[in-house]
Amino acid sequence: MKITKTNKELLLLIRDDDMVAFYQLYERYSRRLYGFVLRYIKLEADAEEIVQEVFIKIWESRNKIDVYSSFESFLFTIAYNTTISLFRRRTSEKKYLEHIKSLQQIEEAPDLTNEIYFNELSEKVQALLSELTPRQREIFQLSREEGLAHEEIAKKLDISVNTVKKHITNTLSFLKSRIDNRLIVNLLFVCLFLS
Asked: Boundaries of each HTH luxR-type domain copy (predicted)?
């Protein structure tokens, strides 16, 4: 007869880095969690990604989980919040792509597959970025290369959100003043569609 462990027992084992207990918890909840997320997200691949992300968060925070409160409630709250975050990211990406496409409709886009053109523009931007202060460069890279929101950057660097916004605005103004607008749009388009 197989003895089934309680969530509390599994969580106590997981705190001691027990991967077997973690797998048992995954097996116990992954299908239900997938169904829960799929009702909101409607895309199977995204639902699978969220389930994986939730269990990664569980493993990473295993030492902080309160074993005496409802694990199910904790688990489904993380899943819900992760789903909302994905919605926000997708909405933001969609708006950004629509904005870039509307800018490109002004005149016909150049051949975006030309790697030489891409490298030339990229080098020009990198040279300009090297003229920024270290703090401006760091904030710009966190925003544009790592995709962090203003609030996340502010928290990471222990500065105000307004300071982050000011640095990004100043950096964009600096780049626009030194590069023709059409070249910036083309560079962004190349980055989006060659990557």
From this structure: 129-187
Give the separation between CA 37 and CA 39, rounded to whole angstroms: 5
Specify the CATH architecture of the domain 7-93: Orthogonal Bundle (1.10)
Q: Distance (Å, rounded) from C-alpha 75 to C-alpha 53?
A: 11
pLDDT at 119: 54
CB 86 within 8 A of CB 41: yes
Domain 7-93 shares a fold with domain 108-194: no
Separation CA 107–CA 176 (nearest Å): 19
pTM: 0.47
**Span 144-179, pLDDT tens digits:** 767 778 888 889 889 998 998 888 888 777 777 776
